[in-house]
Design brief:
This protein is mostly helical. It has helices spanning 9-19, 50-76, 88-100, 103-110, 116-143, 149-172, 174-177, and strands at 2-5, 39-43, 46-49.
Amino acid sequence: MMNSVSNTNAASEAVKTVGFANPKALLPQEIGVSSPKDTVEFGSGAKINNGQAMSMVLERAYSKLQSIVGDARTALGIPEGAVIDTTPEATAQRIADFGLNFFDKYAKQHGLANDEAGRQQFADFIGGAINQGIDEARGILGALQVLNGDVGSNIDKTASIIQGRLSDFVKNGLSAASS
């Protein structure tokens, strides 16, 4: 059976961004990109157009995203169907609280004191992980072509609030950072 996808840069970017942990290690033939035609072939000569191919890729990406969100919801103990405040302030609060919750364990494992230097080392570590997550979310939303207007500015605002919380944590410890 012959499978090939052609001239679907946005589609292949969506597949790379959403479907694989290391998109840079992915070869074009592994995602089905083979030549600069605007067709996709399955089986013995059946063809679909570029729009149909993009639709299939986006459906797969959306399915993957739903799975990730479901796993995150479960990990955070949020019941299915629960209404969640998605404002930048509430989102930043949840992300910062979740990350800062690991300070004591991290400090113990790395021999850090609960002082400004120890908290700074942890904030650098957890802040890097949070920034990576934000960058990955931007990539997914960009690939799905929904990173526009308020979405982008809300992500920026959320990131800024998180950085403020981390700075407060470094200077004042957990009690001040959770207020």
